[in-house]
Design goal:
By secondary structure, this protein is mainly alpha-helical. The chain is built from five helices and no strands. The model has no long low-confidence stretch (mean pLDDT 92).
Length: 127
């Protein structure tokens, strides 16, 4: 399947992308509807999980990196579920989701799940 980049694990950049996702979601605030609380919780957990690697600028040792990546992927999937439920998907947000999954070494899954988060299949940003 095309539409994604295959890159090695990059937790620091995944952290940066998690902040971009949060920034895109924040456009729906400041008075978030009650049904958005799960989405906000998952976003907070994802940012907290990846923040130490943004500060340090490096991936941890391989085993820990894979454990963190798996947690981040689970949160990313939940975030997309909530975006879809709330009908908040849009092209830029979907692009960020694809980029997150690419940084977590799951580019093919990211290419598919980003469409659920609103990325246009023919987006100029889609490889």
């Amino acid at each position: 399947m095309g539409g994604h980049f295959d890159i090695p694990l990059n937790l620091p950049h995944a952290g940066t992308i998690s902040l971009r996702i949060a920034r895109q979601i924040s456009r729906h605030g400041p008075d978030f509807p009650p049904d958005s609380q799960e989405l906000l919780r998952h976003l907070g957990e994802l940012s907290a999980l990846l923040q130490p690697f943004m500060v340090g600028g490096d991936n941890p040792p391989e085993a820990e990196g894979q454990r963190v990546a798996e947690q981040a992927l689970r949160l990313g999937r939940r975030i997309v579920d909530e975006i879809e439920t709330l009908k908040w998907g849009e092209d830029r947000l979907g692009q960020c989701v694809r980029n997150l999954f690419e940084c977590l070494e799951h580019g093919e899954e990211g290419a598919a799940i980003s469409l659920r988060a609103g990325e246009h299949p023919d987006s100029a940003q889609r490889p």
